[in-house]
Amino acid sequence: MPELLCPVCGGVLAQGEKVEHCPSGHSFDRAKSGYVNLLVARQSGAQHGDDKEMVRARRAFLDGGWYALLRDALCSAAVRHAPAEGTVDLLDAGCGECYYTAAVAAALRAAGKRVSAAGADISRDALRWGGKRAPDLRLAVASVFRLPVAAESCDILLNVFAPFAGEEYCRVLRRGGMLLHVSPDEMHLWELKKAVYQTPYRNDAAVPVQEGLSLLGEERIGTVLHLTRHEDIANLFQMTPYVHKTGLADAARLDALDALDVTAAFVLRAYRRD
Predict the structure, then answer these.
(1) How many other C-beta atoms lie within 10 A of the C-beta of residue 266?
(2) 18-43 b/e (C-beta count within 10 Å ≥ 16 → b)
């Protein structure tokens, strides 16, 4: 398993019953749901990342199977790019509620691989549910730009709808290790944005570039979601960044939607660590 490191001194954290501690004596309590908060002290008291309502909405939407096509494609890619021998050290940078993390770990095990898996996310609310979904994962509250894991300790790194911290991903991947990166394609959720906003815009689908990471290929994954309940439409919108930019008039348009056919379009890119 990618070992978690102390955010103060960089020492390896040992797992106690309720506390994780490093050789220098720094200690961090483990929450009841299993995660440990490794944000530095000046950050840990503030709200970071997705809040409870965004987490609830995304969990409900994903558990409804609406993004199963993406989940399955990610699982297939992980199995395809996994090392042939030894334990697969898997890290999900921006793991959220661990919907994709748990699925990929299960797919690797189903393919006959030994897996040790960890996840990091800046949202404590997300990791509370991540620990319940996948209690076997080692989870940490941390920024993807400062991952609390050792250099060259990961075989596969997942990055799904999270910031692309290329330099940090390059650091934690072993040579020959794989980054599986998922981002929205240009027309992702176009019909939803068109129904809510007067001037919708397409997503920026620029290819992330990082020295030390070679792009091996990309897979475009798309489908049309036939949403026939207002609850599903509202959850989809609530789990996106758009929710923070929506005024009262736009929110009223959303509330009026009871059914919607909406494009789900993703790009899955595979990078190899040079």
Answers:
(1) 21
(2) eebebeeeeebebeeebbbbbbeeee
